[in-house]
Amino acid sequence: MSTALCTATLADLPxxxxxxxxxxxxxxxxxxxxxxxxNPATQLPYYTSLLQDRFRDPRxxxxxITDAASGAILASVCWTLVTGxxxxxxxxxxxxxxxVNVEFIGKMVANIRKVDALIAGRKHFTINSLFVAEDxxxxxLASQMMRACLAKADEAxxxxxxxxxxxxxxFYYKFGFKDVGTLDIExxxxxxxxRDLGLYESYAMLRx
Length: 208
Hints:
Blueprint: E1 3-7, H1 13-24, H2 30-33, H3 40-56, E2 60-67, E3 73-82, H4 102-116, E4 124-132, H5 141-156, E5 160-164, H6 169-173, E6 178-188, E7 196-207
Parallel strand pairs: 4-5
Antiparallel strand pairs: 1-2, 2-3, 3-4, 5-7, 6-7
Helix pairs in contact: 1-3
């Protein structure tokens, strides 16, 4: 299959939101984040809102890899140039639609801000999200996007920061990222007797 790496636009928003939903629905966190899990009608507005905020942010670039023949989006990455005086994590600034566990999201945001503080005050790039369609994984698409981002970071002589999901942790080591902190989230409902899915551990990582 021939593919093309290029900048995404707002016209890609519906396809990107759906791809985002499909990829992140496999993460255990999704079961707590969405109150009527696994209803996609609740999830799509959340991912749409998150991506809209990123498209509106002039510091953020959204890249996509498409099938050159069909134009279908196979993978995408969002990354932001942070000047040191603004928050990098998009989730912390997104308006939450109905059907989202607001209390749980609030705890996530508080934890994200704690690890974001590890690089506060430094100009850097932040990789906000990187996702590849399930049937296109293990084909080098994620590596292609990482190389494109890191080439620009190297040209600018700036570090790159991200928070990795558990399943992608080892992938980022290949590109020179090192652990600088952890993000531990208890995956449980607020009400007594609610679900308790255990501890979800993500990793703050930095590449100098």
